Amino acid sequence: MTHSINQILKNYQVGMTAYDRCHAPTIASQWQAAQDEFLEFCHHPSFDEFWDILHATGRLVKRLTGIPLNLLAWPTVYKHGQRFAETGCIRSRRNCQGHCCVDNLRSR
Known about the structure:
With 108 residues, this protein is mainly alpha-helical. The chain has 5 helices and no strands. It has helices at residues 5-22, 27-43, 47-65, 74-87, 102-106. Helix 1 (5-22) packs across helix 4, helix 2 packs antiparallel against helix 3 and helix 3 packs across helix 4.
C-alpha cells in the first residue's frame, strides 16, 4: 500500500494521538522510551533502531520545547503511518497490547 507524504503524515498524527491517549507522553515516559530504544540499538544495532532512537528523542524534545524533531526520523514516521493505515495501530503486531488501537478506541 503506497500513500502520499501528506497521507502518511496524517496517518502518523492520528496514530500517535491514539497511542498517546493510552500512553501519556510525559517527560518521564519519553525519556524512558528514548532509553529503551537506545538499549535496543545496543543489543541489535541497525539503521532501523537508529531511526527509532532519533524518533523517541525527537518526541522528548517536542515534549520539552514544542519543536517536532521527531518528524526528522522519517523512516520511523513512515513505519508508524503505514502500520496505522494497515492495522489501526502504530505498534508492531509483536508489541501491540491491543488497548489503544483504533478499533478499541471506537468501542469506548
